[in-house]
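seq:
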Amino acid sequence: MNARRMQQHACLADALREAAGTAPTGHVRRRVFIVGCPRSGTTLLQSLLHAHRQIRSLPETHFLPLLLGSEEHRRCDADRPRAPVARLRRWRRDLFARWSLVEPRRAARAWSFLRSLELPAHMPGQGRWRLGPQLRAFVHTLDAHALAMHKPIWVEKTPDHLFYIDHLSAAVDDARFIHVQREGRQVVGSLYRAAREHPGWRPFLSLEKCVDRWETAWRESERWRGDARHLHVSHDALVRAPGETLARVLAFLGCDADDTLWSRYRSMANGLIRADEPWKAGNLQPLRARDAFGDVLDASQRDWVESALATRAASRTVAHAPASTATRLTHTGIRVPHA
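struct:
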């Protein structure tokens, strides 16, 4: 990082620390969370909204996954712990979350990460064992960040906050949630490509885990369809009809149109990407449709993925079908091709 960039970061940090102690939270008009499956287009939508003159966003905070970790087992069926010790740890995390308790060690880690993003982050001194004070302090931190930038709306984008919507809804009465959804084959292809190119994504060299991850996120998002506080956005629609799709999102947020964002969203997106997130570089490129499924997977892998997704779709149909219909539907075993 050059000297000028370091000076800019230092000035921003000073402004945010000052705002944390003086800015009233009531001036924030809208608090928004973008959620979904990784590699579904959440960063793209975040970048577009961040370029709007009324909206401020920031790099992923991972706040609740770091703070609670209580629902990690819901992310991917193939990764659910089966060893007795791992299952005991999972049970303990779930118990803490059910009682709205927080482990100080986890809380310290979550707040340390927020400070690494140069946010005015201060862990609550009172009630640090309870989830409510932690979430209120988190919201105050994001409010201060937005108000220091003179923005009435903030957008927080951590895809895995999808699994903590119940907690966030209880703590943030006026929260809005935008679910970005992408066709399953494309998500699987994109996850697999990230796994081949970046060590941190290596678990997704298993196509079974890719399919499972997308299916788990899809089912969780669908739980909230029809709720007035939730908007579901298609990645395909965002890429092929960006103006119309973004207009629908802005109407949901109560924002005016801002045509100038199209000329600056890619340059501003760079500020949302940490140095350790090279897989997000595609958001700095011109907006266009990409075929991750056809470009990344070979023929046998594509056949397996399509069969696996069809089986999952049949499972969802069985779950919602009348008994007379469900009995006629069967499932076939599928062998995973070698990566």
